[in-house]
Amino acid sequence: MALFRHLSWFFKAHLGTYLIALAMLAGVALLNVAMPYLIGQTIDQLIAAGELDQSVNNYLFLLLGMGLLIYLLRFGWRLILFGTSYQLGGLLRKRFYQRLTRLGPAFYSRHGTGDLMARATNDIDAIELAAGEGVLSGFDGALTFILVLFMMLVVIDWRLTLIALLPFPLMGYGFYRISRKVHQHFQSALECFSDLNDRTQEALSGIRLVKAMGREDAESEQFNRIAAKAARYNYKVARSEALYEPVIYLCLTTSLLLILGYGGWLVWQDQLSVGKLASFTLYMGQLIWPMWAFGWLLNIVERGSAAFTRVDELLQTKDTISDTGGAEPNGHALQVEDLYFSYSDDTIRVLDQISFQLPEGKTLGIVGTTGAGKTTLIQLLMRHWQTATSSVHIAGTPIDDIPLQQLRGRFAYVPQDSFLFSLSIAENIALARPDASPEAIKRVAHIAALDGDIGQFPEGYQTQVGERGVTLSGGQRQRLAIARALLTEAPILILDDALSAVDVHTEQQILSYLNNGTTTRTQIIVSHRLSAVEHADEILVLNHGQVAERGSHQELLNNEGWYSRMWTYQQMEAALDAI
Question: Fewest CB atoms within 10 Å of the CB: 160, 162, 221, 266?
């Protein structure tokens, strides 16, 4: 029952609600326990009177009133108890989502989207069930068992009760063995469900590639294999759960045979009345619910425990990036001094001895071969990864000392892969500023050379872009992301190869605005196309995580290094394309 201990904070917060529900449950249990006794009294009174006299009628009306009261109490406790457990599910999902938003790339590199979705849905449903059905089964089952046992032991006949309890130890041992199997199989079923979610999410996200590569059959085969494995474990769970009921009925049937035999002998010896034997038999029938409740309790608690382990693992995951700073730098000039970085515990440094100064209002270009560390450097500036030392400063303040929200609010970032939500074009542009006016949205769309494309859509700015912007081309998605970044008006603009999907003419149109002196933003432009950085105040050429060359465009051309060779090659390529 460790699950209930882990959830004690919730039970304490809703103690009053649970007490009301438990009081209703107790009322139902007391009335249920009283009814067999009253039925027995009614039978004995009827036998004694030989007719339906007033006393018998009084018993019958009392039983009818108790039945109606049981109905009302049952409705009340269900409404209160299950309604409260649904609140637990909502609260856990809220905490789960908040935790996800605070974890960095290091966490998401180890966990798939499908697995996280499974934990937020299927796993929390199992915990929610334990907080509702579990409390019901545990409290009502235990109370009913105690009351029924009291009536059987004290009110009717203690000898008959001891005979009836002989098979119960075997039932307890059976429950113990079954609950262990349920926990083991359900844990495996949850993991398989996560794998199934992961596979489904990947296939649907890449459905166009799947179709283009003709992998429909291969993907279906892989999906079916994982689905079959999940089905096997779910079948094992169901098979284990199905053992509870036979164990209960075998033990209770054995008890019933014992009490009918011994009870009949007591009646024959005039040591027990027929009415009391009938009451005792009815009480044995009422023991079915407590026994079933204990089995169901063990079942859902084991399910909830397995699910809670997976959910709590995420909730207890520490932030990959600490957010304890309180400094507010005056300005946004960037200083990077001897920056180095390695992913995880890798000894290979992705970046090594990176240093540069970027005054306010200036432009820095970053170029280099694929895998040189350009994007990693950008992510370190925004603290998406934690560095070993405070090598990055804004206006002389280490970025570790700046609150994360304030730090990242200083950057307008356009990544390589522009992510769009299933909203309209206008809503995607105004994502960071939902209150932006239509005029402001159109202005940044014009700067990003997107307004012409939008004008060709039937619904204009209200056009829905589809999931991940599937209805737009790669160049349109990039330009929409640029417009979104420009609308934020953050002091530092970062374009991380954000012009790779647009043609040279459109690229120059966008860059001409950024370089025409009408903006005071600090700019960092990462690009494989060197024409995008030729107007930068300083250009860094990265090679294997180190600065191989640095200087202005003209200085790098004069050095006749990698930059000069690549520039000549790209110019020749552009000239050939123009022919």
Answer: 221
